[in-house]
Amino acid sequence: MSTPAALITGGTSGIGKAAAEALHGRGYWVAVTGQREESVARARKELPEDILVLRADARSLADTDRVMSEVRDRFGTLTTLLLNAGISRPGTLATYDEAAFDDVFTVNTKGAFFTLVKALPLLSDGASVIVTTGIGVTRGLTGNSLTAGSRGALLTMIPTLALELAPRRIRVNAISPGFTDTPMVRSTSGLGPDQIDALAAMNPFGRLGRPEDIAETVAFLASDGAAYITGQEIVVAGGAGLAV
Questions:
Q1: Which of 60, 184, 76 is nearest to 52 (CA)?
Q2: Is 173 a domain residue?
Q3: Which site in 61, 125, 147, 202 is 20 to 30 Å from 117, CA atoms measured?
Q4: 238: left (phi over 0), alpha (psi -120 to 50) or beta
């Protein structure tokens, strides 16, 4: 049996990095991408040395082509694709401008879509495609309209993509984390430590999500145990949003 192989975009920190570690620990070959030089350099130091860490900008189709070429040379095929790269630009109708709109949708929506397009020749029959969307797509969060819209566009594609790829038994599912304690959330949410602690206290489980919580669900969706699951959204949020 050949070694399973995974590509994780946005995999140099937070949820993506935790997913890389989880899959690597299960015997996968793993490649991750990141956009910021400092994050890529840190990941190369902190992740196992046989994980392929590539610098790539999700805005650039040329970068995506290069990633696919390097993954093909290293792994040959992919059994798992985690589309996790994303950015957040908190704001309101009064503060957003066209540049912010274009930036968020180019990374979160266009980048994910065309990464899947360009990965198709590498995906083996029966592969698993997992798209990070987020609980904010279906639940209101002040200042989150651009991020929610860009991720929500991906969520609406999931059933159609699942049907399109079903003849090859390629599964396409979304994973929607709740508020998760990641470096990006800490740096771009606009929330201070006290506000983050308050959100944790409000969660039914009394804490924020951890990257490892999401990574374990990714590992399940990548596994043969999820071989008959496609076109679905799995919310990993500790019960957030259930209360009336």
A1: 76
A2: yes
A3: 147
A4: left
